[in-house]
Amino acid sequence: MFVNNLKEYNLSFSKIAWCHVQEIQKSHDPIIKKQLLGNFNHLIRTWSGNRAKLISKAALELFSSAKPEINPFDIRWEQRNILGTHSQRKPKIVWEHSIPVGQFIKELSTCKSFYEVEMKMDLYPGVCWITREEDDALNSNGYKNSRPDGFKTCYTNCGIEVISEEELNSIRKIIRS
């Protein structure tokens, strides 16, 4: 099940995120701050887990060859084993936060207003389906927990090309014509 009203969804989560930011900023107790950050992490993962916004061309190729009848943008994190697993029981595709959750929380935690939180969340590039090999490339290049210069630069440095659902639909429309 996916959210129909994305604007309302983002607004609701932005309000909760702003409450977290305010409490994190005013807390001087390290235990409370740690608990707030843990809860904030869960909030951001829940909010961003609604639907992937991007897919790598390599992951799309895996879907196209193994499950051509499935729209990869309809697959959620819980279904990550849909294309099978590698020998270590790791899924062949990875639900990848284009901006790592920890980095995004640090960025949000510096916001000075609800409006700033709302804008950052509206501009969040989202989750991207990538292959296990692409995830390994990100990790081996030092991009596991941060994306200096933005996710597009890091993806390019690792040879990852992505497309959005809108781009995929445009391509499919042209092919059918």
Write a structural description.
The chain is of the alpha+beta class and 177 residues long. It has eight helices and four strands. The chain is 55% helix and 9% strand. Strands 2-3-1-4 form a four-stranded mixed β-sheet. The longest helix is centred in the N-terminal third of the chain and has 21 residues.
In summary, what is this structure?
With 177 residues, the chain is α+β, with helices and mostly antiparallel strands. The protein has helices spanning 6-26, 30-48, 57-66, 101-109, 114-123, 132-140, 151-157, 165-176; strands at residues 54-56, 93-97, 127-131, 162-164.
Can you tag this structure with a few keywords?
single chain; 177 residues; alpha+beta; 4-stranded mixed beta sheet; 8 helices; 4 strands; 55% helix; 9% strand; globular
